[in-house]
Specification:
The complex is a heterodimer. By secondary structure, chain A is mostly beta strands. Chain A contains one helix and eight strands, in the order E-H-E-E-E-E-E-E-E. Chain A has a five-stranded antiparallel β-sheet with strand order 1-4-5-6-7, with no helix packed on it. In chain A, strands 3-2-8 form a three-stranded antiparallel β-sheet, with no helix packed on it. Chain A is globular, with a radius of gyration of 13 Å. Classes of the chains: A mainly beta, B alpha/beta. The interface between A and B is medium-sized, with 29 and 30 residues.
């Protein structure tokens, strides 16, 4: 099922609920293969209890996000780092 | 200064707002453009999207993400919705929602797949089917800003009747102010159309795109397979991967 995923752009709304900046422009490094790519380019599977973001190069899970009625869980163990573009004054 | 400010963000959390339908018009036999008035709407950039949430009387709630089809215009937010017959949300938005009816909407979201009118690079837009929607927001924003940055659009559809915004694109192209439009038909073409029907390929991109040494900013939006094909063609032709921005539709259907 080649079309069963979206990309990281689909995470923009869910993650803006918990982050003060847009996470989809952050560049992540995959803990499995070392590829760096913006979160917007993750392969996102949303037909699950939450969202699962996989590396576009090796397909390993980079992050998982589940929104429950009273809390949100974010698992980013598949990312070594996230680099957020910011200007010197914070914007 | 105690700490660096994140402009407009910490105090401007993403909230659900009540939006009311103010306009509903047909784009194709299966797609409708719907316009909402959203009090408090903070504005948006072309390419950004919104989440729309519907809640039933029993409390069951479901949400979908839609690209915004037009640049910021006060409190108006314009979407084009492809009706998915067995979908939960799109038939309601396209056929049931009446003028004045409310939905919940939040946004804008997404800072990656956006075009800024002060970006001087030439632009290549490649759309597959409903993937035209955020690209049309960029085309309309270009016109609204009155900038002369050259745009080229390659728009792949199954058949002529599947084209969104056909009249407007024709008029914009006729204005000859730097927007070129090329159609790719995958199943049925107009009469006397010289290109054989079929999926988009490298010849379409070389004929209607920009040479890589023009260093264009490329935006590709459509179904996953379409986006992957076009992105790999662009990389193969020598475009810098960092200058290619993609947005895939998944199975959001509905």
């Amino acid at each position: 099922m080649a079309d069963q995923y979206e990309d990281g752009n689909a995470l923009a709304g869910p993650l803006r609920e918990v982050f003060a900046v847009d996470v989809t422009t952050a560049v992540g490094r995959c803990a499995s293969c070392g590829t760096t790519a913006p979160v917007a380019n993750l392969r996102v599977y949303s037909r699950a209890p939450g969202w699962v973001g996989r590396c576009p190069a090796c397909d390993e899970v980079v992050l998982r996000y589940v929104r429950g009625p009273a809390a949100a869980w974010l698992d980013v163990r598949g990312a070594v780092s996230l680099r957020f573009p910011l200007t010197p004054d914070g914007g | 200064m105690a700490r660096a400010a994140v402009p407009g963000r910490l105090t401007n959390r993403l909230v659900w707002r009540v939006a009311r339908l103010v306009e509903n018009r047909a784009e194709t036999p299966t797609a409708r453009t719907i316009v909402f008035d959203v009090p408090g709407w903070p504005g948006h950039l072309p390419g950004q999207h919104v989440d729309v949430r519907l809640t039933a009387e029993d409390g069951y709630s479901t949400q979908r993400s839609y690209s915004i089809a037009a640049p910021a215009d006060g409190h108006k937010v314009e979407l084009t919705v492809q009706r998915v017959d067995d979908g939960e949300v799109s038939p309601y938005l396209a056929d049931v929602l009446s003028i004045g009816d409310p939905v919940e909407l939040r946004g804008p979201v997404g800072g990656w797949f956006v075009w800024r009118p002060d970006d001087p690079r030439p632009v290549l837009l490649v759309a597959g089917g409903a993937g035209i929607v955020p690209l049309m927001a960029m085309i309309r924003a270009r016109r609204a800003a009155g900038v002369r940055v050259p745009f080229r659009l390659i728009y792949s559809v199954r058949a002529p009747e599947d084209r969104y915004y056909a009249n407007e694109l024709r008029q914009l192209e006729r204005a000859a102010d730097g927007l070129d439009v090329a159609f790719v038909y995958t199943r049925t073409a107009p009469e006397n159309w010289s290109r054989p029907v079929g999926r988009i390929g490298v010849d379409d991109i070389t004929a209607h795109g920009w040479p890589p040494d023009f260093e264009p900013h490329c935006f590709v939006c459509g179904p996953t397979g379409f986006v992957e094909t076009v992105a790999s063609i662009l990389v193969g032709l020598g475009h810098a991967p960092g200058a290619i921005k993609t947005e895939r539709f998944g199975p959001t259907g509905g």
